[in-house]
Amino acid sequence: MSAYINRYFLLMAVFLPLWCVIRRPWKHWSLHEGCLMAFAALLFSLLCLVLRGTWAAPGDMLASALHRLRTGEGIQLRLFRTITRQLRYARREEMLINIWGNILLFIPYGFFLPLLWKRYRHPLRLSLMCLLLPISIEMCQLFIQRMTDVDDVLLNFAGGMIGGGVFAGVHMLFPKFIDKALVRG
Fold first, then answer.
1. pLDDT by residue (tens digit) across 110-131?
2. Other CB atoms within 10 A of residue 131 CB
3. Secondary structure class of 149 (helix, strand, coil)
4. Which of 33, 58, 151, 182 sits CB 3.0–4.6 Å from 82 for a disulfide?
5. Cross-strand bridge partners of residue 148
6. Partners of 149 in the β-ladder
7. What angle do CA 118, 106, 28 make, to 5 degrees?
8. Which pTM was predicted?
9. Are 101 and 156 in contact, with CB atoms under 8 Å apart?
10. What would the pLDDT profile of 95-108 be if each residue is shown by its tens digit?
11. Cα Rg for the chain, rounded, in angstroms?
């Protein structure tokens, strides 16, 4: 788990200066800009973590993915199989990373989408976005020889929806803060 945290802080040390050079937030700072920066940092670090794998020439990666699709190697499509195994047999640290990590990583995603863009406040749109990103990630992992697992999609989706629920609660308690976060500077 500490390796993930260290990698995250290293990625942020690279990402934040890049964000400042590209966006120049000091020229038009607002709550919206700060939330957008946090959301972009989250996505950047998330994608860097989950897309770490064996990269090769595009043709080789495609051949590898096709082979995996034909053989089923490294692909787990039975719902709840990995979750059940983790709960029964995994060490505590493995379970924290694989189950709780998959949920916790996507809570901010489900929170920031409706915070930054009003159109994602509709539950169906938010659900679709919270499903599309994990499916896209798992499909990409097919090409880089990482385990592709339907339970990861389920856990990521659950995390995103929890984040959406947190947003709804914050919106009810602090509507002025939410309205302020929508205003672009």
1. 999 999 999 999 999 999 999 9
2. 16
3. strand
4. 151
5. 75
6. 76
7. 50
8. 0.88
9. no
10. 888 899 999 999 99
11. 18
